[in-house]
Amino acid sequence: HFSGLNLAQIVSAPKLPTGMISGQYQVDAAGPSAADIKGMANLEIERTDIDGIRVYPSKAQLAFGDGRMRIVDTLNVRTAAARVVAWGAIGLPGGRGDSLLHFTAIVDSLGGLRRYLASVNEPDSAAADSLTGYVEVRGTLGGTLDKLTLIDSVRAANLFMNGTSADSVVATMSITDLLHARRGTVAATAGSVVLGGVELDSLGARVDIEDSTHVRFRLGARNRDV
Fold this sequence. Notes:
- By secondary structure, the protein is mainly beta.
- The protein has helices at residues 7-10, 114-117, and strands spanning 2-6, 20-30, 38-45, 48-50, 53-55, 58-65, 68-78, 83-91, 100-107, 131-144, 147-161, 164-176, 183-195, 198-211, 214-222.
């Protein structure tokens, strides 16, 4: 059991949300290498507030074996700002790479996350107070924890941020070796866009990631009056 755990004090990361976490965990797993770990791990988090966002009771049960980590039943994390659901399995480092871990993240209103999505250089800018929209992310992680493949889709609606708006956004992403020599494509299309006071029927972008240091970017816009 743990009580009053402050992540900001034990994890060295910039702008990590502050807040006390309490709950309990049980770990009964071991193995001669990461790929050979066998056993179970359970984590339960009690209701709390993290950086002003209410986090509701959540729990996760993980099973290790056969070169992979599996989520027992379904992982549900629910906060006042977003909901995350995950299920399936993923290969352990050096283990099996034929498993899939599925996840869904839903943000009913981006306003609840405005403090994190404001400009890094201007954290107190007007953008922090003019942010709305619905976002739904559905994705799959494949491979192993040390060589991940990510395939996901994003659907958003009624976006507004600091004078820029879009009625809808649809995006897809496919990236291999996500944490290291990443390669892949990110494509997005926005409909009924207002950008800098200019109304556009649609706005599209595509990013081709050739490796960790080389990226190609393409952008296109369409307006029926032009």
